[in-house]
Description:
single chain, alpha/beta, globular
Amino acid sequence: MAASGFYERWVLPRLIDLAMRNKQVTRYREKTIPAAAGRVLEIGAGSGLNLRFYGPQVQHLYALDPSARLLQMAKRRQPAAGFPVEYLETSAEEIPLDSRSIDTVVSTWTLCSVPDAARALREARRVLKPGGLLLFTEHGYAPDPGVQAWQRRLDPLWTRMAGGCHLDRKIDRLIHEAGFDIVELTNEYLKGPRPMTYTYSGEARPR
Length: 207
Ligand SMILES: C[S@@+](CC[C@H](N)C(=O)[O-])C[C@H]1O[C@@H](n2cnc3c(N)ncnc32)[C@H](O)[C@@H]1O
């Protein structure tokens, strides 16, 4: 196995799991996830760190992620509530679910890593029922020109090191352009290097 293959297959999933467990990130999970209800689809579910925050109002959870390793880790975590979880090992750019079949789509720190985030969001909109909800907490393009310059500068290297993660995605614009109205939005820098921590958290509904 080439060194890059080894890194992506064995090292990166563990790094992602570790990096995504810090206190501030967990605080956002606590805030974002409990609003999910009904038939829920989580895109880029990763190692399942959101599972324990879903409440009893969830009927069924589809946990979608293209990484078999991360889904294996997710399967070892138990959801707090007793709803069934179905794991979909595939990409959010082509969601294998019927149109208008989902009540809530959840995306946390995923849109940075999906190669075609606009397409994934259009897919999210397609599977959502009219009146459904997109819950998101993502990092992305900062408002400060100095930070933006660093985001653009670091992006090519960062993308290679961090599993395809991009630093310069304007998350609110991507969501809006995919056919959603953003009904709630909070932005802030989390602790840590500013190019990596500008956060977009909120709710959107299909237009
Ligand atoms: C930084 S991790 C975040 C994981 C998880 N959402 C969380 O909050 O802990 C980015 C995730 O995006 C996933 N991802 C990458 N490409 C994807 C795609 N095309 N469709 C769906 N998820 C993807 C990765 O496998 C990884 O699980």
